[in-house]
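[09:14] KT: can someone run the structure on this one? pasting the chain below
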Amino acid sequence: MTDKRMFLKLGSLTAVALAAGLVGCGKKEEPAKPAATAAAPAAASAPAKPAPLKIAFAYVGPVGDGGWTFAHDNGRKAVEKEFGDKVVTSFVEKVPESADAERVFRDLAGQGNKLIFGTTFGYMEPMLKVAGDNAGIKFEHATGYKTAPNMRTYDSRTYEGAYMAGVIAGKMTKSNTLGVVGSIPIPEVIRNINSFTLGAQSVNPKIKTKVVWVNEWFNPPKETEAATALINGGADVLMQNTDSSAVLQTAEKMGKRAFGWDSDMTAYGPKAHLGSAIINWAPYYIKATKDALDGKWETGQSWWGVKEGAIDMVSMAADIPEDTKKKVDEIKAGLKAGTFHPWTGPIVGQDGKEVLAKDAKADDKFLGGIKFYVKGVEGKVPGDGK
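[09:31] RB: done, structure tokens below
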């Protein structure tokens, strides 16, 4: 990923606590409260108010990307709203998945943050290293799989949203060819491409899916180029596992249909927009913050989806057939109740071999290690999926 500029925005806290702050940071300050007068001895004996919990977020993209980072920042704002002056939050945006991430995490630890969130897969190793040197700080890593006594992981079941998008795409396509702009070929992204295809095939067995990889999470020009190539290749409904709204905007310009991803992107391409597979990080961020405030935080792994209110399909287009909308609603209800699983066999790989037997349901270990395409996805998975 190319170098990215970094910006630090600090939430409400007094200026003294951040006198040694990061270079280039900005913050909000609460107005100073009048000093207590000598005529109020009762106030002098009142117990000191606990210092707010300092929480920091490291973002791989800009907060204005309209997708992944925007969704995380909405979660940060939800924490501020939920806990008020019990917390103070800050963020750094455009942090590369490189050695620079380690420097950022060390800076955030040095600023006195006691809960630090790293919001992309590529932060796993740098965060693990910094966590090992800062036992008194709690670290949370999004989409990874390595933990430590003071570092846990969290993720969202984006494949559930991809599957619902596929159901819609399978009904709305006229060419029976779908397109996906892929970011980086890790199991998470490959799983979403497959889930999109499986959802579409559940209502239209003729579906085939083409993929163009850009090998970055956020690069609107590359995403635009990839979307254009897919449309020129016959795809008339697009989905992406990238962080910007470029794919939807390209579909709008070229008269095709597409989905919003991570956040509601309706406004970026209202004519092209079929629906947005969104992530709501607020429930998890609020829980993690409460754990830390209550002294109940412990390491582990969390993977939340529709059931926990973390995944949804929203703003479905008016021209989607009512029976298709009803099917999506039934899938949501099944996911929430635990009675429906998108990865239920029989499922066949691209090579024609069965990867999941009839009626078998993929467990999280299986889902976490997907490095293959299902039947109907064209092309080859780049590298080994790592």
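[09:33] KT: thanks! Residues 1-41 have pLDDT under 50 and may be disordered.
[09:34] RB: yep, looked fine to me
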